[in-house]
């Protein structure tokens, strides 16, 4: 497949802008929703929207190609960001956040399908994941700084909405020249692959969800200042950026990478109550895991939209459910039990992986 610098730029800028916009509201949540319940609703609405749209986004990508679906996702994200910039009631903010999540879900599923359909998919997945995490970091840090500097909570949202508009304009410049040829593959064989690798979807739910558990529990557990909490959570994303770029240079992956990473993540989440340095370890391991999972899925030459839609859905499901369950456990049995819950789930991934992935060695070729 011919190189398409324009579409590569769209994918990288698009994932950066959508992720940054998703985090831009976090430092200023109290300005948009006065009660804890409404703040929780505003935060969760985005993940719900992304959860319900990633699988349909993958199926639409298989049918219509990557560019039309990415363009649709960016349009929805742009409109949601613009309305969020103007929103004045918590109800409207929740609706805008859900719309933003739907747009992001469509974009993510299609962009991942594009990345994983390329011959250099491992290297490209490193760039993609690096830009994703860079967006999360800058969305958190820059929007907070802009809110203080301009004495307005919406400046960061406006800035990253403009970044989304730039990515959308890029889709017009690309036309269809860089689109991925839609390879057909027997549907039965694809669904057989899905059923035969349930451990992989489970690992995506759990190992991504563990990072959400750590991020959601630590502020209340540690009682440290919000700026330090933001620093350590941002450090987790920075560590992910580093490891995805390094891991994307590995030419072959073994199931033992996910096995070993799940064991280490189980240990790292137990170390969170001792030292926030464990955030860096978690972020580094998450980067390795995501590159390995995508490399494994790239073995299937067709229906990458479906597979990437499922992969994204599993990841969002983990971020939506595991922090919620851990919060319930923390309220009823204490924070240490909640962290232990996440560690046990990490161990179950290792158990599920043993004897299943060890014979598989996806290649970057």
Give a verbal description of the structure.
- With about 375 residues, this protein is mainly α.
- It has two domains: about 1-175, Growth Hormone, Chain: A; about 185-355, MFS general substrate transporter like domains (Growth Hormone, Chain: A), CATH 1.20.1250.
- The chain contains 14 helices and no strands.
- Helix 5 (about 90-115) packs antiparallel against helix 6 and helix 9 (about 200-220) runs parallel beside helix 11.
- Mean pLDDT is about 85; it is low at about 360-365.
In short:
The chain is mostly helical and 365 residues long.
SS-derived structural category: mainly alpha
The third-level CATH topology of the largest domain is Growth Hormone, Chain: A
In CATH, the homologous superfamily of the largest domain goes by the name MFS general substrate transporter like domains
Q: What overall form do the CA principal axes indicate?
A: globular
CATH hierarchy: architecture of the largest domain: Up-down Bundle
Helix residue percentage? over 70%
Percent of residues in β-strands = under 5%
Write down the domain tally.
2
As a whole number of angstroms, the C-alpha radius of gyration is: 19 Å
The number of helical runs is: 14
Distance between the termini: 13 Å
Average of the residue pLDDT scores: 85
Biggest sheet architecture: none
Tally of strands: 0
The CATH class label of the largest domain is Mainly Alpha
Helix/strand order: HHHHHHHHHHHHHH
Regions with little confidence, pLDDT below 50 for 5+ residues: 358-365
């Amino acid at each position: 497949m011919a190189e398409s610098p324009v579409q590569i730029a769209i994918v990288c800028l698009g994932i950066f802008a959508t992720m940054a916009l998703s985090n831009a509201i976090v430092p200023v949540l109290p300005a948009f929703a006065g009660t804890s319940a409404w703040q929780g609703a505003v935060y969760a609405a985005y993940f719900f929207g992304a959860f319900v749209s990633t699988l349909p986004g993958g199926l639409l990508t298989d049918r219509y190609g990557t560019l039309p679906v990415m363009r649709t996702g960016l349009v929805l994200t742009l409109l949601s960001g613009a309305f969020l910039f103007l929103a004045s009631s918590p109800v409207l903010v929740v609706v805008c956040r859900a719309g933003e999540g739907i747009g992001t879900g469509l974009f993510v599923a299609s962009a991942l399908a594009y990345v994983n359909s390329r011959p250099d998919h491992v290297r490209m997945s490193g760039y993609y994941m690096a830009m994703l995490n860079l967006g999360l970091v800058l969305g958190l840090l820059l929007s907070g700084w802009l809110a203080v500097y301009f004495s307005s909570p919406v400046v960061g949202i406006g800035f990253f909405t403009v970044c989304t508009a730039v990515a959308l304009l890029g889709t017009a410049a690309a036309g269809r020249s860089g689109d991925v040829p839609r390879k057909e593959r027997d549907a039965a064989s694809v669904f057989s692959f899905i059923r035969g690798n349930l451990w992989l979807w489970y690992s995506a739910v759990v190992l991504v969800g563990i990072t959400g558990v750590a991020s959601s529990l630590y502020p209340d557990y540690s009682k440290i200042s919000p700026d330090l909490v933001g620093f350590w959570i941002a450090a987790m994303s920075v560590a992910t950026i580093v490891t995805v770029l390094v891991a994307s240079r590995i030419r072959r992956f073994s199931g033992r990478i996910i096995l070993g990473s799940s064991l280490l993540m189980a240990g790292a989440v137990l170390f969170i109550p001792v030292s926030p340095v464990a955030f860096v370890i978690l972020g580094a391991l998450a980067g390795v895991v995501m590159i390995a999972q995508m490399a494994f899925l790239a073995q299937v030459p067709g229906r990458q939209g479906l597979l990437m839609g499922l992969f994204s859905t599993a990841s969002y499901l983990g971020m939506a459910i595991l922090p919620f369950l851990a919060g319930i456990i923390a309220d009823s049995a204490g924070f240490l039990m909640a962290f232990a819950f996440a560690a046990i789930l990490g161990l179950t991934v290792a158990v599920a992986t043993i004897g299943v992935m060890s014979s598989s060695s996806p290649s970057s070729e």
